[in-house]
Known about the structure:
The structure holds 2 protein chains of 2 kinds. By secondary structure, chain A is an all-alpha fold. Helices cover 57% and strands 0% of the residues of chain A. Chain A is built from 5 helices and no strands. In chain B, helix 3 packs across helix 4 (100-110). Chain B is of the alpha/beta class. The N and C termini of chain B lie far apart (73 Å). The relative contact order of chain B is 0.14. In chain B, the strands form 2 sheets. A 5-stranded parallel β-sheet of chain B has the order 3-2-4-1-5, with helices on both faces. In chain B, strands 6-7-10-8-9 form a 5-stranded mixed β-sheet. At the A-B interface, helix 1, helix 4 and helix 5 of A face helix 2, helix 3, helix 4 and helix 7 of B. Chain B: It comes from Colwellia demingiae.
Amino acid sequence: MSKVIEVLMQMASNAEMSNTKSLAEMLSNANLTKAQELAIQTKDMDALKVATYNLPEIRCYPILLPDDKSEEVSTLINRTVANF
Amino acid sequence: MSGSLVCVGTGMTLGAHISPISQSHIEQADIVFSLMANGFAQKWLEGMNADVRCLQGFYQEGKNRNITYNEMVEAILSEVCNGKKVVAAFYGHPGVFACVAHRAIKKAKLDDFPASMEPGISAEDCLYADLGIDPGKTGCMHYETSQFMFYKRNIDTSAHLILWQVALAGDKSLGKFSTGKAYRQVLVDLLLEHYPRDHEVILYQAKGIAIEPMREDKILLTELVDADLLMQTTLVIPPCSVMQANEELLAKLAKIDKQEERNKNRPALTLVL
Lengths: 84, 273
């Protein structure tokens, strides 16, 4: 797992990381590049994206359709009806 | 070997929200299909399993989402049919305001494959925590924004109204990544039938990674037309009226209370033969 991801995981899951001193200590021991460390310290998401190589591109999010008339649902209903 | 499917939620914030069972499913799967909210989360997932297949490639601006989602379901199910232990990992909760997991599980079950869902911490969960809203206090209504516009709904202005996917307000094509000001104006006009023009609303976004702040932009309802909206932006409309007592029903309940009180005070009868 990349070091940046490990750091982000630590920050999100370790309550101790809300302590500025502990966070600074963890960051200095994480072997991040200077650019990554600075981006995390300044909470600059765009800079962190640039500083993290091979980051997969996310184009869109799964959402709910306003009219979800999926074929699967109607098939399921038809089968249920046929079973009676 | 028989295939199986588990749809899991990874939560909203990378590393903070995933449940132990979801993580275990991901680690033990033969194949993991993924729909994550950002590249960092995708990378994180790729660190948990050697075969993670991102479903983002199916998206295309202008392509009907119904087709996109069916293609995703087909991709997931084809590996289940190949006898693989498949996990489909979605950011947030796999079954809340997202149809792919529901469709995939239904299809797998129709084909007699074991299929189930593991919940994740959803944007709704984060919203309550971040904005300090208790949905039980005066009630809370949730709608997908376009559906809210397409159908006549009863709006209770004494409860919170939460509109999801507001950036896509009024999109009938199901192919856009966002709709424009004219569409939003229609939504604002609809809301102005129930709320005052100067009503303060909130644009909310949960944080995706530890360094990202959550979004809590307070604007006037009429300013929504020009607001900067992303696909993950949620519109939170606080109540503008107080709850009205249902006097008729309260009278009925009081009558029952009185009757119960009378029954309690009545001396116990003993049957003597």
